Amino acid sequence: MTSSHSHLAETDPAVAEAIAGEERRQEENLEMIASENHVSEAVMEAQGSVMTNKYAEGYPGERYYGGCQHMDTVENLAIDRAKELFGADHVNVQPHSGTQANMGVYFATLEPGDKIMSLDLNHGGHLSHGHHVNFSGQFYEVEQYGVDPETGYIDYDEVAARAAEFDPHMIVSGSSAYPREFDWERLGAIADDVGAYHLSDIAHITGLVAAGVHASPVDHADFVTGSTHKTIRAGRGGMILTTEEHADAVDKAIFPGGQGGPLMHNIAGKAVGFGEALEPDFVDYAERVVANAKTLVDVFTDAGIQPVSGGTDKHLLLLDLRESHPDLTGEDAEDALDDVGVTVNKNTVPGETRSPFVTSGIRIGTPALTTRGMGPDAMTTVGELIVERLNNPDDPDVASEVREEVDRLCAEFPVYE
Ligand SMILES: *Cc1c(COP(=O)(O)O)cnc(C)c1O
Fold it and tell me: Is the CB of residue 329 below 6 angstroms from any atom belonging to ligand 1?
C-alpha cells in the first residue's frame, strides 16, 4: 500500500476505507482504460501537500495575494519544465482539466456563435470539441469531420473540402479514441487556407508527444491543449501551450476569465510529473506504451477481432466487435471483462448503429499496464486472456481461470511496491 493514511483512518474511517478499497482495486485489476495511468508516489505527495491551502490568483510574480513566493517557485518549475518538454514559447499550467484548457482557448479567441470544426465524437472526438451536451456545442456553431468508414483513417482531402465550405473560425484536431497518428502539418495548412485558428488537443497523447514518440503539433497549431494525467503521469489537470502572440489572451481567459484560484497542489504535482518526464527513461516508457499496444493488435487480429483502422500508432486501440462477436455489445464486453478484473470502456465505433450507452466496440489502452512494468510477454498474455473471455462471456469456468491469471499478473507487476 502507498501509505497508511493514519490520520484519515482515525478521523474519517468511511473515507479512509474507500481510499484503501481503491488502492486495492488498482493493485488487483488490470487498468486498461486508455485515459488512465498511475502517478508516482512523489506526484501524490506533492498533490497531498500544504499547497492546497494557498490562494494564488494571478501568475508568478503578479499575484493578488501575499505569501506566494513558494507558489511562484512551483508554478515556474511546472512552466519551465513543460516548455522544455514540448518546445513551446508560452505555457499555462493552471487549467483545472483538459476541458477547461479547451474552454480557455475558445474564450481567448472566439465569440459566441462563431464556427468550429472538429472530429465527430463517434469517430474519436471529445465532448469539449462541440458536442451538443457540452458548453462548446451550445456556444458555437459546430461542423464535424469523420474518418473514412472503409479505412478508419481521417480523410484529409475531405477535411479540406469541408473546411472550405464551412469556413470555420477554428479547426480542432486531436481525439479520445482515434488510434492513428495525426497529420498536424496538413491540419495546420488546412486551417491556414481558410483563415482559421488551429487548436490541437493532445489530451491523450501528451506523454507520447513529450517523448517524441508521436509527432508534435507545436509548430503547426496556434494552441495546443493537453491533460496531465493520461500518457504523462503528472496528476489530474490540464495545460495550454501557445505562442507569444496568444500568450496574454490565453492567460486572461484562464484567469480571471474562467477560473479563480489555481489548484496549487495540482500544479506542484504537474511540476513533479513533468520533471519525471524529462528523465531519459521516460522516452523508453513512451516507446514501450506504443509497442505494447501494437502487441495487443497482433493478438486480437490473430483471434479474428478487428481493430478500427487495422491497428494503432499510439497507446490505444479500438476493437470493433461487430464482425467477430455480432451478439456481444460494447457494454456486454466491458461487463464481461470487468468481472475478471480487466477494466476497459465500451466505445462507439465509426458507423456505429447502437446507442452510446450500448455501443459495438471497446477501447483498450496500455499506459497504466506499462507503468506497472509489463512488456511484450505479459501483454501477449493479457491480450489472450481478453480474447478468451470475449469468446466465452457466459462461461463461469473460463471466468475463474482468467481471473486467476489476472491475479497472478497483478501480483507479479505491483503498481506501488
Ligand atoms: C480526456 C480528454 C480531454 C480532457 O478531459 P478532462 O476530463 O476535462 O481533463 C480533452 N480532450 C480530449 C480529446 C480528451 O481525450
Answer: no
Q: What is the pTM of this model?
A: 0.96
Dump pLDDT digits (tens) for 63-87.
999 999 999 999 999 999 999 999 9
Q: What would the pLDDT profile of 356-407 be if each residue is shown by its tens digit?
A: 999 999 999 999 999 999 999 999 999 999 999 999 999 999 999 999 999 9
Specify burial of residue 400 (Cβ count, 10 A radius: 0-12, 13-18, 19+): exposed
Q: What is the pLDDT of residue 1?
A: 44
> For residue 126, how far is its CA from the centre of ligand 1 (angstroms)?
7
What is the spatial distance between Cα 16 and Cα 213, in angstroms, rounded to a whole number? 39
Q: What is the mean pLDDT of each run of 10 residues along the chain (417 residues)?
A: 73 96 97 98 98 98 97 98 98 98 98 97 91 95 93 95 97 96 97 98 98 98 98 98 98 97 98 98 98 98 96 97 97 98 95 93 98 98 98 97 98 95
In 120-269 the beta strands, taken as DSSP E runs, fall at 141-145, 170-173, 197-201, 223-227, 238-242
For ligand 1, the distance from its centroid to the CA atom of residue 98, given in whole angstroms, is: 5
Contact 349, 265 (CB under 8 A): no
Q: What is the architecture, at CATH level 2, of domain 288-412?
A: Alpha-Beta Complex (3.90)
37 CB near ligand 1 (under 6 Å): no
Nearest CA to ligand 1 atom 13: 175
Architecture of domain 45-277: 3-Layer(aba) Sandwich (3.40)
Question: Quick one: pLDDT at residue 124?
Answer: 87
Please enumerate, by residue number, every residue annotated as part of a binding site for (6S)-5,6,7,8-tetrahydrofolate: 121, 125-127, 244, 355-357
Residue 372, ligand 1, Cβ within 6 A? no
Q: What are the E-state strand segments in 291-387?
A: 306-307, 316-320, 342-343, 345-347, 361-365
Rounded to an integer, what distance in angstroms lies between the CA atom of residue 47 and that of residue 49? 6
Do 211 and 285 contact (CB within 8 A), yes or no? yes
How confident is the model at residue 122, as a pLDDT? 83
Mutate to test the pocket of ligand 1, among 133, 204, 229, 236 (most ligand atoms within 8 A of CB): 204
If you take atom 3 of ligand 1, which residue's CA is the nearest one?
Answer: 98
Q: Which residues are annotated as a binding site?
A: 121, 125-127, 244, 355-357
> How is residue 2 annotated by DSSP?
-
Ordered by start, the domain boundaries in the chain are 45-277, 288-412
